[in-house]
## 1
Amino acid sequence: MSASNMSVSPKKVIGVIGGMGPHAGVDLVDKIIEQTNASSDHDHLPVALLSYPERIVDRSTFLFDETDTNPAYALADILRALDAAGAVVAGMPCNTAHAPAIFDTLVDEVRGTGHDVRLLHMIEETVQFMQATMPHIDTVGTLSTQAVYDLQLHRAPLEAAGFNVVTPDPPMRERVNTTIFDTTFGLKAQSHPATPQAKQNLLDAIAHLISKGADAVVLGCTELPLAPLAADMDMVPLIDPAEILARALIKSVHPDHLKPVAPRLAAFQTT
Amino acid sequence: MSASNMSVSPKKVIGVIGGMGPHAGVDLVDKIIEQTNASSDHDHLPVALLSYPERIVDRSTFLFDETDTNPAYALADILRALDAAGAVVAGMPCNTAHAPAIFDTLVDEVRGTGHDVRLLHMIEETVQFMQATMPHIDTVGTLSTQAVYDLQLHRAPLEAAGFNVVTPDPPMRERVNTTIFDTTFGLKAQSHPATPQAKQNLLDAIAHLISKGADAVVLGCTELPLAPLAADMDMVPLIDPAEILARALIKSVHPDHLKPVAPRLAAFQTT
């Protein structure tokens, strides 16, 4: 479709629920821009981002019974606001928020109030992408918070799709969790750029997963930095669910604007 | 104010009009996050970003009479949508859009339709910041597109505030303009990261402005990359209007959450 045709009917708006943590929403918008095939400013897709950190109760706090306030209701308010701003599809860059107790409640709540914006499921999109593009991968390692390990948010759908799944041994799990949450060197405290200690811990954890047989590693927390890790790790593909979500969002509204799969991942298709 | 007090009344929402070009809005949200004094996810301020590139006619095309479609009306629609999403104050990271023919029309249009979201003026905020924090600066150099030079969007308010202003000689102006717009090596085509050629051109232009007496340089186009230039240039302060706008937006709604001025600029206060 030519640029002049594109301008006849306005492009459909992609919505982003941000705020879990402050950078995750912005990073997803960046990834949407990066994955869009555009030759001018005007070719880029319209995106609405609502990043309201304080309104969203910590997901793990709810899931582990420390509060009965389900963040799904605040997330539903934000999704309705995105719908009101014109979004026809939306994504939520937070792995923990995809726990069924939150995600399913959110979808039911929004559907029940008459809004038809479609919320993609980041983890399901990731597993589908891996099935479609990585037929030679047998065993997948996952890096995530302790909460996401406990909830098996990646293990369950990956196994259902036929992958073997390996996770770090308990001491390394603890180290990964600390690397995300530690208030001095952790990724939530300092992620742009990550501290050398955080980066080294993650590289060690990836090496540990490879030693347990991983042919690919899912960076299953939106705080895990793709770029600096990818530059150092060329042994196995690193899968960034937020990047896959960005691609799925573009594909759902403007497939003609989706860039080819990056060489980093595409190269792996042929091995 | 303690964190618990903050959660009693919800924080006020900052709006961002993005899309001029695709990265500028995201970069402003990043700068708001960076300039916010926060010790947890929940301390960060709520931000709404609407980035609709194709709806906004190129500002220079309008200002130089190549079309009579004033982008102010599309910008007003976006600002009203930010108001509807709860924004009480907003910013627009595009220098050219602050030309009076656009900015004043936009403000009148939104005020005339009963919306009271307040749009800060990025260039005025920048000049006020420099007046307040840089009393020892006499001469300011500016880097911008040819359109912004022709419109004197930085020169006029800087001179009104008592600064001398220097701009590049015509061949260097042309080189700066090309560095922004060139479709192969230019910043609009490739800004994350900038190409070596683009970066070298900008460093040359800054050296040229210093040779013409500049004690500070305003990076007067939101495509000009602060971080890589700042790392190489420690001779004069580089002023990023989008960073000043981020600070002004925070200050206008939650001054208690504004970080101190960065050492890069604060150090200059005492010379």
## 2
Amino acid sequence: MKRTSLSDSLCPVARTLDLIGDWWTLLIVRDALGGVRRFSEFQRSLGVAKNILSSRLKTLVAEGVMQIGPASDGSAYQEYVLTQKGKDLYPILIALGQWGNQYMFNENETCSRVVERETQQPLAPIKLRSQDGRELAAEQVEVIVGQKGTNFAS
Amino acid sequence: MKRTSLSDSLCPVARTLDLIGDWWTLLIVRDALGGVRRFSEFQRSLGVAKNILSSRLKTLVAEGVMQIGPASDGSAYQEYVLTQKGKDLYPILIALGQWGNQYMFNENETCSRVVERETQQPLAPIKLRSQDGRELAAEQVEVIVGQKGTNFAS
């Protein structure tokens, strides 16, 4: 399937979506954040075809989202581990998950959610906030264009 | 292209990704948050084929993310407007955009970003936070399974 490339877009949302490519990629990152490291584990967890999984992992490594390392137990298996760039995708997954918890499940339906390990309390809802922490509504923000590395993008 | 359905997954990330379907959907929502309302405007902005745009808008309306209303200028055109459910996708787009700003642009490259309208300052970076506002690292959170509507999902 031919896909328009968004990789030269000025919009960082479009570029990110272009890299992520399809949903498998974010589900791979989700599993990696949950501790999955081996090809066969990803395959079992996701139920995805091997050729698709292989291609997505290859892209993630090429883009610096994951890196390949030796098995943590000393065996011959390769392991896929998130880089910092990969771990920094976590807020995107949490935002997707919180929206899904709110809108995609009926009351009393069983669902998974992310909690703080120590307190077992759900995380705070992700909101748009100003630099000094005020919550902002959609109507209070706007898109501007400028140069990265200036105050604009600090 | 056949796609595994994730709509009955326990994972809210998977269900949300299943609804969103492909990247066009999030780019439509992005444009709608920026004030785009008409089919022809979405088409021009996104450069997407009419049949794809039509199909994605239909899904968004069916899922309650957008609703169709009369034209705001009294003309015969229909307009597509985000519901609250749709506006609540904004944190997902901001999280995608902030990650993209950080990782998908070179220094000094031109990029767009979201600012607070009144101060023209960039929004605060989206972080994982506990209920009482402490910033949490990926290692401090975990996934649990429970029932929506209980304290677990409050």
